[in-house]
Amino acid sequence: MRMDLQYFAEGGQEKTETATPKKREDTRKKGQVAKSNDVNTAVILLVVFILLFVYAAVPGQFMHDLFIEMYINYAGMSFSIENVMALFFDLIFEIAIVLVPILIAALFAGVVSSMLQVGVLFAPEAIKPKLSKINPLKGIKRIFSARAIVELVKAFLKIVLVGLVAFGILGIYVDELLQLALMDVVEGFHLVAWLTGVIGIACALLLLLLSVPDYVYQRYDHEKQIRMSKQEVKDEHKKMEGDPQIKAKRRQRAKDVAMQRMMQEVPKADVVITNPTHYAVGLQYDGEVMAAPTVIAKGADYTALRMRQIAELNEVPIVENKPLARGLHDGTDIGQEVPEDLFRAVAEVLAYVYRIGGEL
């Protein structure tokens, strides 16, 4: 029943058509792309924990120096607002030196993982504030929607699997952990740090593996969301073709360009056959490259007048032959050879033109 209501709400048009390139571009500009946040999370965790393996000596040394400085220098410091503020800013600065490389690595990993999924994308419309996002009714619908249930199941599955991996690794090193109380501080710190890194990388690899089907599902769901009805596809094609007046202007412009090109061919004609006022046809014949005379220009009324004027300016012979002019105009296209049934009449005209030209 719910699907029927949605179907009629959309005008009775079922969305069965694959999205057009324009629809994909429009949705991309709105920030609606196929993207899995699980991929970002997994890649960030993997990069951060790998960096910690390489970078672990720095925070370890920092904590060691910090404890020494606290017990030696800070323990005897008088309690005052100035001393507390100085201590606070000093600690903030030293902590920032340690954490900034890790934060930069996490930021870089997040950007790269997003670009691998959606490419370079800047969609300011996606971050515009929308009142619908704070609507309590829509919020409740989102909480109890099918997508929310799927996300809940995914989160529960990830927690269970990550917990199994973590406890599995701890179980392997349970003997070393039981001896942790007998180790000195540095050795114990190294063991805990190493186990933390191993667990982190193992869990990140697990999440990365789990993110693959999620990414596939997100692409499928995105394609489903942007599907179009047949009417939407037709409307988009009409919109892309443009306004009828604009199309008429384009056709007229193309016609003018074609007319100009045709007029440039008139001076090359051997003869222009006229009606004499309504039609004009320009013929060219070169026995070495042409099997028959060819129509290189034709027109009626104003076009015919312009052809006669250009022919006169370029001293191209003009021959009046009403039936032949009408037959060539109606029976041939520009660039086409003269039809066989008009060969005799055209040959007579050309012979006359060549004879007149020879006498001149």
From TrEMBL:
GO CC list: plasma membrane
Membrane spanning residue stretches: 39-58, 95-123, 155-174, 194-217
GO biological process, one term: protein secretion
Bilayer topology: Multi-pass membrane protein
InterPro entries for the chain: FlhB, T3SS_substrate_exporter, T3SS_substrate_exporter_C
Compartment(s): Cell membrane
Chain spans, region Disordered: 11-31
Signal peptide limits: none
Chain intervals with Basic and acidic residues compositional bias: 12-29
UniProt KW keywords: Bacterial flagellum biogenesis, Bacterial flagellum protein export, Cell membrane, Cell projection, Cilium, Flagellum, Membrane, Protein transport, Transmembrane, Transmembrane helix, Transport
A Pfam family this chain is assigned to: Bac_export_2
NCBIfam families on file: flhB
Record-stated family: Belongs to the type III secretion exporter family.
Described purpose of this protein according to its UniProt entry: Required for formation of the rod structure in the basal body of the flagellar apparatus. Together with FliI and FliH, may constitute the export apparatus of flagellin.
Protein name: Flagellar biosynthetic protein FlhB
Organism of derivation: Salicibibacter halophilus
